[in-house]
Amino acid sequence: MKSRLSCLALLGALLTSPFACATTPPPNIVVMLYDNLGYGELGVYGGGVLRGAETPRIDQLAAEGVRLTNFNVEAQCTPSRSALMTGRFSIRSGTYKVPRVGSPDGLTLWEVTLAELLSEKGYATGIWGKWHLGSSEARFPTNQGFDEWYGVPRTYDEVMWSNADESNGVLPSIGSKQGWDEKLVPAQYIYEARKGEAARKVKKLDLASKRTLDEEITERATAFIKRNAEAGKPFLAYIPFSLVHMPTLPNPAFVGKTGNGSWADALAEVDHRAGQILDALKAAGVEQNTLVILASDNGGEATHPWEGANGPWRGTYFTAMEASLRAPFIMRWPGHVPAGRVSNEIVHIVDLYPTLAHVGGAEVPSDRAVDGVDQMDFLTGKQQNSNREGFPAYVADRLSAIKWRNWKLQLIQQDNMYDPAVPLAIPRLYNLLTDLREENNVMLENTWALPRMMGIAGQLKASFAKYPPIESGAPDPYVPPH
Predict the structure, then answer these.
(1) In the chain, what are the domains?
(2) Where does the signal sequence lie (predicted)?
């Protein structure tokens, strides 16, 4: 009897899996997340040669899959990465802003990451690059579902500490007395770690090590792909590259490659590294059974001389302007995602969590608020419309805007990350189809749209009563209040 029940249970699990055929192995998943790659950088998004470097490998990837023109992220690096890993708006997880050095930071271990979901389904999991979701070892990625990691805990601004008192042509000389002193603030490091083992400091994070980091990330990611393909083990390869985060400097092998300056050389490297990952999948014989996503975590850089290009959109990241929220997104999955498809339907980065969990045969947690919606039927072309019509846009802990269909309601005005955030006495409404730069307030003639838009904010607020947000810096162990 126990044998018969076990067989029935197995049959039921297979029938509910998206890959019920026993001959079809679970698909591999590769997520290439570029850092602050603006909407207007890639050739297929109107950049490429206009930015000084063609991007043929990424453009071809777009031709082989679906490209979104209304893929939305959160306003800062940490919030976007938190949303990707948990499927929850970062305001819920206490990860709604980039942490400052010395302050408590990161995801509580109570959160269930995408890596944890897929690991439970037999996936090998690896991350190479910036984590930015916990700078204490207890919260490193290898304690959050990943089998291996090579990268940095926080951000790349810190490469400039050790160069601030040097005249190197990249950063201004301010003198050693006024500059950074390792005795006061320790140097930051690139780490290597494996699940169940202590993390190891590999080398200091500085300008030289950042220049070669994407090369090292690619080498380790491609080795992981080859190793698991040979073993016949499904894998999640999460590859958060360092480019084009400031200081935007290319690998020495790419210096002068385009003749159009450091930014163009870095863009050429962006395309090359993506091509190396794609080549590794093909060489390993798993290209046809691998879902590949290429996206950015934020809009383009805002700081001179590394400003990014955001296409037709106005503003910078760290705001709720479209230049902050809209980012490139390309997805290829041979035999599942129709080639050459372009859509302006709204998708949010939180949606990747339930969508990729679906792909891997996992279920999202039911004991907490999960904001992401499964977009697999939309992305595979089974339906034309997204399963999402809008979302609330937070900048840090401020509800700054609401998007619904092609409308944008600005509650706080802030065009540039260096501008003050000014609450608006009367919100401003923009039609994003006729006013890409958010310059013409059409509130008075379109007040009919407000109930739906304010309803999005109301639903989120109501959910806070049932699932209170985690405070920023909350320690482990975290237990949600009843």
Answers:
(1) 25-164+183-383 (3.40.720.10), 391-466 (3.30.1120.10)
(2) 1-22
